[in-house]
């Protein structure tokens, strides 16, 4: 049976990709993905055929990839981060039966993990990952999830925190969390994870509510135990240290 690989490429840097992802991309005949991700990969795989589509053309992109795979070409559909976390693994798996194509998902490093490493160790205990994009999820559902995570004392990672059309969504999310935890709660942001211009910043939850993020920013909200340690964001694991 013909096969398609759905590959998480992490933040897009060669060093941040898994060995499994690199191996698949090296053997692929064609690489299909969002324009930005294809542009990130071209310098590392210059001999490959790339087929790119802009944002909001996800279904079309899946069909292009599945058609190439059904023709017998070794095809890789690439996604940033992990293909199964806000990625293209789900639609490819749902659509693959139409094309009689086998699907293999190649794990990648999602922004919650790569961004946490930049900040220090903010996710040492239980945490929730929530996207603030209401393109596919109603805002009412996003608010319920924020409320539940905040009430449960979870550290929270926010994907897609803001855009030109959603400039106040991060502030609204912080207002929900502030109902359940202190304004002094340690938070952090990482922008352009693993790419040129990477930056990180620690701040309080109150300060975060007024921070202007963008779609390249990943937001980390600590729990009641999270603290700043030498400029890093740390949620203690709970070990007892002998001195």
Architecture overview:
The chain is α/β, with parallel strands linked by helices and 243 residues long. The protein has two domains: 105 residues, Cobalt-precorrin-4 Transmethylase, domain 1 (3-Layer(aba) Sandwich), CATH 3.40.1010; 124 residues, Methyltransferase, Cobalt-precorrin-4 Transmethylase, Domain 2 (2-Layer Sandwich). It contains eight helices and 13 strands. The strands form three sheets. A five-stranded parallel β-sheet has the order 3-2-4-1-5, sandwiched between helices. Strands 7-8-11-9-10 form a five-stranded mixed β-sheet, sandwiched between helices. Strands 6-13-12 form a three-stranded mixed β-sheet. Helix 6 links the parallel strand 7 and strand 8. The model has no long low-confidence stretch (mean pLDDT 94).
List keywords for this structure.
single chain; 243 residues; alpha/beta; Methyltransferase, Cobalt-precorrin-4 Transmethylase, Domain 2; 2 domains; 5-stranded mixed sheet; 8 helices
In short:
With 243 residues, this protein is α/β, with parallel strands linked by helices. Helices cover 31% and strands 26% of the residues.
CATH superfamily descriptor of the largest domain: Tetrapyrrole methylase, C-terminal domain
Radius of gyration: 19 Å
CATH hierarchy: architecture of the largest domain: 2-Layer Sandwich
Low-confidence stretches: none
Number of helices: 8
Helix content: 25-40%
Mean pLDDT: 94
Judged by helices, strands and strand pairing, the structural class is alpha/beta
Give the tally of β-strands.
Answer: 13
The CATH topology of the largest domain corresponds to Methyltransferase, Cobalt-precorrin-4 Transmethylase, Domain 2
Which geometry do the CA atoms define?
Answer: elongated
Cα(first) to Cα(last) distance is 60 Å
Main sheet: which strands, in order across?
3-2-4-1-5
CATH class descriptor of the largest domain: Alpha Beta
């Amino acid at each position: 049976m013909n096969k398609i690989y759905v590959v998480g490429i992490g933040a897009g840097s060669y060093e941040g990709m898994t060995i499994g992802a690199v191996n698949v991309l090296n053997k692929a005949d064609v690489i299909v993905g969002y324009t930005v991700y294809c542009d990130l990969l071209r310098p590392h795989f210059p001999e490959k055929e790339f087929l790119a589509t802009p944002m909001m053309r996800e279904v079309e992109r899946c069909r292009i990839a599945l058609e190439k795979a059904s023709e017998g070409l070794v095809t890789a559909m690439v996604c940033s981060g992990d293909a199964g976390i806000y990625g293209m693994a789900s639609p490819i798996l749902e659509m693959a039966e139409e094309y009689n194509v086998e699907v293999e998902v190649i794990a990648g490093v999602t922004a919650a993990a790569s961004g946490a490493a930049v900040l220090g160790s903010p996710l040492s205990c239980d945490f929730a990952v929530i996207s603030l994009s209401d393109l596919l999820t109603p805002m009412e559902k996003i608010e319920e999830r924020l409320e539940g995570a905040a009430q449960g004392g979870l550290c929270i990672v926010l994907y897609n925190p803001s855009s030109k059309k959603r400039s106040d969504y991060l502030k609204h999310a912080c207002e929900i969390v502030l109902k359940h935890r202190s304004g002094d709660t340690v938070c952090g942001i990482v922008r352009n994870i693993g790419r040129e211009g990477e930056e990180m910043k620690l701040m309080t939850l109150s300060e975060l509510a007024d921070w202007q993020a963008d779609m390249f920013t990943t937001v980390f909200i600590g729990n009641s135990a999270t603290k700043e340690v030498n400029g890093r964001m740390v949620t203690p694991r709970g070990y007892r240290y002998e001195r």
